[in-house]
Specification:
The protein has about 180 residues and is of the alpha/beta class. It has a single domain, classed as 3-Layer(aba) Sandwich (Glutaredoxin). It has 6 helices and 7 strands; from the N terminus they run αββαβαβαβαββα. The strands form 2 sheets. Strands 5-4-3-6-7 form a 5-stranded mixed beta sheet, with helices on one face. Strands 1-2 form a two-stranded antiparallel sheet. α3 runs parallel beside α6. The protein is globular, with a radius of gyration of 18 Å. The N and C termini lie far apart (about 55 Å).
């Protein structure tokens, strides 16, 4: 009796955990960065058409087939400012190989013109815009920034970074995505 009760409990817990991790597959209707597994293709939550701080537009078509790092940050956040050069250096290094960084500013009241000046001061050339509430929810950002999500060229979830990303850590994650033999 105890053995069968334990077996039922294990099966039930496994099913619940599988559902929480997106074992049924990443649904485009209810995308979630944390619901993707390493084997699911096209799990990156779709970004709405993003108006960038320099007046440009970024669409899903611009990101298709690329390794993508989505970075949620704010100008008032020290660790966010500290990691901007790291993200820019990685972008400069891998951009020609199909790497995209998308900066999404959250909880920041800085005026658009001041935001663009801020980015220029830090030498940021990758597309940056303001995160919508939908972006924030889709990626399940949580309560702190910076937080970043890395996806391979097929849209498979690779890693969530919470806090400032070091150049060493980012390189360790990116290099295998571009140097496959």
């Amino acid at each position: 009796m105890r053995t069968s009760l334990l077996a039922v409990l294990v099966v039930a817990l496994g099913a619940a955990a599988g559902g929480a991790l997106g074992a049924a597959g990443c649904q485009k209707a209810v995308p979630s960065a944390s619901a993707c597994t390493e084997t699911e293709v096209d799990c990156r939550p779709a970004l709405r058409q993003l108006t960038t701080t320099d007046g440009g537009t970024l669409t899903e078509e611009n990101l298709r087939g690329k390794v993508v790092l989505v970075n949620f940050w704010a100008t008032w956040c020290g660790p966010c400012r500290n990691e901007l050069p790291t993200l820019q250096a990685a972008y400069a290094r891998y951009q020609d190989q199909g790497f995209a960084v998308v900066g999404l500013v959250v909880e920041d009241r800085v005026a658009d013109g001041d935001l663009q000046s801020f980015l220029e001061q830090y030498g940021v050339t990758y597309p940056t815009g303001r995160a919508s509430e939908a972006d924030y929810r889709a990626y399940r950002v949580g309560s702190g920034v910076p937080v970043s999500f890395l996806y391979d060229a097929e849209g498979r979830f690779v890693r969530r970074f919470e806090g400032e990303i070091s150049s060493r850590l980012l390189e360790a994650e990116l290099a295998p995505l571009f140097h496959r033999y």
